[in-house]
Amino acid sequence: MLIEGILRQPFGYVTLQVESAGFATESSQKLLLWPLLPRNQVAGFLEEYLPEFARDFELKSLSPTAGRRYILQFLLPLTLVALPLSLWFNWGKYALPFLPLSLLWGLWRYKDAAWSLNGDMLAVRFRILNRTTALIPRHRVQSFTLSRSPLQRRAGLANFGIPVAGAAFGLIHISESDGDRLLDWVNRSQSRVNGHNGRRNGRPRQSQENSPHR
Q1: Are 9 and 50 contained in the same domain?
Q2: Are 128 and 181 members of one domain?
Q3: For residues 5 and 15, is the Cβ–Cβ distance under 8 A?
Q4: Which residues pair with 118 in a beta bridge?
Q5: pTM here?
Q6: What is the pLDDT of residues 159-190, one digit of tens each?
Q7: Secondary structure of residue 155 in the 3-state scheme
Q8: Are both 85 and 188 inside the same structural domain?
């Protein structure tokens, strides 16, 4: 993973980290590869030490429809709470500054959300607080979740998630066509496993129609 902290990102520095699956009863671990590396040196670092992950990715951003939902996801409920508080209580006015901050945070998360495929490697970029880019080899994918709420179905959107080595990566509000493309990408790996084992396994899909994301 490439982790760009909110204080380091403006200066072009990243932290390189690996999610390592535990053996037997051991839990998964986060291994720090490099604490502080200039972003323009990441490609050379991967080519030298982790050539499997040295790929060129053209990250695909999300649609404007998704952008509105990223912004409203926290802004709308916060508005419904902050406005009544500001009208009924004197101290409620202190909640109002959080409204523009919530709007900016939603816009920030939307701008950073992106994904890309390059052969058997998936890149997923997202932001919670820090901006994180996860590089996921297809052979490490054990399951894949593609879900749609009723409102997302009407808008042609979906959520996807991939658990890897005890961590979970994914995005909300991708297009349904992109979700189907990712599902096909995962299933190609599953088909190879089935062919080698000479048996049929279930598709790595868990459909959750009543997703909490809107």
Answers
A1: yes
A2: yes
A3: yes
A4: 121
A5: 0.81
A6: 999 888 777 899 999 999 999 999 999 887 65
A7: helix
A8: no
